[in-house]
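Thread: Newbie trying to understand structure tokens

Hi all, I'm a second-year student working on a class project, and my supervisor (Dr. K.) asked me to get a predicted structure for one chain before our next meeting. I've only ever worked with sequences, so writing a 3D structure as a token string is new to me. If someone could post the tokens and maybe explain what I'm looking at, I'd be very grateful. Here's the chain:
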Amino acid sequence: MMKILGLALVMSAVLAAPASAQTELKEIQKEWPDFRYLEPKQVRELPAVIKADLEKRGCKIPRFTKWDARHNLIQGQFLKPGQRDWAVLCRQQDKSSILIYPASAAMDVQTVRSEGHDPYRIIHTITAFVLQKRAIRDNPTEPAPEFDHDGIEDGPIQKTAIVLYYRDGEWIDF
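---
Reply by user tm_fold:
Sure, no problem. This is what the structure looks like when written as tokens:
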């Protein structure tokens, strides 16, 4: 009897997860009708090796289909100057993480800021120039740190975000 009860609980949890995700999608689409969770295969600009890795991980990519600005699936020089990297906001069940693909390859993928899923969370590239200008603006009396490559801005839509920057072999945020 206990095995049957346990199996029933597991089955109800498995069946409730898609319904919960669907409810969440409908709720956010009330405010943002163009919001979608894309399968990696639906994203043309992604290199094939990154698509395959995202599919293997079971990632869905939250995207606003009518926004012109790149978000949640971005390119930049995130790890070092001159190297084109990809960063993807990957939703896996109830978590979302930023996955960094160095030099557009699926090897040595870095996971940054894994946390509970927030459908309003977005990421976008922030250039070294903008980082430098913000540092001067925010601390005019102190010498600004040097920024020689891009960072990632991460936060909820229309709210204060944090900036992630790779320095000395680790990700820092400010």
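A couple of things are worth pointing out once you decode it. The helical segments are 2-31, 48-57, 128-138. Residues 1-19 have pLDDT under 50 and may be disordered. Feel free to ask follow-ups in this thread.
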